[in-house]
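Quarterly update from the structural biology core.
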Amino acid sequence: MGQNASCFKGGELDVLEFCHSHRLSVVSLASNASSASNCSEDDINNRSCGFLGNQELKRFQWVPPKGWDHHARLLRVSARNSLIWDGSTPVPVAPAKSLSWLLPCSDKMALRIAKLQEKLRSSGWKIVTSPVHIIQSLGNKAQFPVYAAKIGMLSFLPCHFSSPEMAAYPCVLKPAKGEYGKNTYICHSKEEVYQVSPEFSTAKWVLQELVPGNVEFSVSLLVLHGSIVDVIGMKYVYDKSIYIWPKVTELHRHLCDVPVQHTAVMARFLAEYDGIVNFNYKQRPDGRICIFEVNTRIGADLACDAPRERARELFQLLDKLRG
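Predicted structure, tokenized:
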């Protein structure tokens, strides 16, 4: 569950105290910018937060549209997944200047927001993002093992193979860029690898150890200037121990505590990170976590699966600390 009273930085635990309280016309911007984060959408519609209730405030806009708008609305902090923008220029104008957050929910958009952050801020958006090279190092599945080796954390990833001839089978083949298990395969021989990728290249494909187990964790973190300020863990249990999601039956899911030992490992990857990030991993028999990927964006666990009241707290905290 969340650890809102704690701040992880570089693997060490420091205690901080945080207080939880969260086309528009804005009344008294100076006084309402901070108080709006404490208001539900019903409050906004009733004009109790200094906003005009006859216009829709899109305070947290997740881009691009992925069919998550219903889940966003259930947060009751005026979150939306409805803005049609493909990352190109000109950039969209914020519905409420200096009040509306633009947050990525795809890897491509995370990179585009990082590259276009100054233009987006000039267009009225509030942005939380990281240096482009950090987004690429974490979000690109081919570059991620290189970055992990650079910071001395490669042992917390699956084994990666430089060629089909060097792989231990069965193994997993997946694109360097991609989401939600698309074009990901379990291969049992080098011949199967070459059937999928006749001209295999580690720049375009990742060939990695298959880690068995029917329990998987998806952890979303709010990270501000390299410090973890909130953690939401989701545990997923499946009907198979060897699978490629989503080609598996989910038995159940639930909110779970994230051990300090796990969070400390994740913190080592986030020293230069700023924003919302998602880690997907399993736990090895010896207790070590095995990180499959890092998503530099809002993941489906936070957007759709986590209890709405708990997910709401993360967005409120972002607005409280950086609004």
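The longest strand covers residues 227-238.
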